[in-house]
């Protein structure tokens, strides 16, 4: 006789946010000093009755900006998640195509490709193994983890519509591969553009000395005659 899942099942401990690096902690800890310096600079630079209100506005704006700034570790983790997601979804789809259920397929993909995506999906695998409603689990993932939202939305729609999930996941894997290739190409083009700036700065003095200066000297010499 199968045991029924209790109606109230506590969720596993959610994944902890990425810890802030010492540099991030230092920036946040010294935020009052930066804000005071900004206020002093604006108040000293400006003159008149609006000087100190503008200084206060600068301090408040800098405070809000520093508090809302994303830690560097969180940015790196999001970048790792974006890089790993196409391969992870492909492994997940292969496990589903072999006949494994979503929970078992997640476990197999997490074992084969540990990393940011595997860590983010650990609570999802645990909830599915506990027998919680799969639609609610995937919908919650789409809200809690924007990086995994494409996979979560595909799984939630497939569960609600009763569709074959293997085809949807395979299509998502192809789409993510195309997006990853497009990002790599964009970065390659950006590197070329950024490399052209210092190259131009290096060639500019030679161009001036070999091309412009002789012309100016010849013109000045002609005017003297």
UniProtKB/TrEMBL annotation:
Domain Type II secretion system protein GspF: 88-210
Region of interest: Disordered: 1-24
Transmembrane segments: 50-66, 195-220
Keyword field contains Ligase: no
Principal subcellular localization: membrane
Superkingdom per UniProt: Bacteria
Topology with respect to the bilayer: Multi-pass membrane protein
Coiled coil spans: none
Compartments, as annotated in UniProt: Cell membrane
Record keywords: Cell membrane, Membrane, Transmembrane, Transmembrane helix
GO cellular component: plasma membrane
Protein name from the UniProt record: Type II secretion system protein
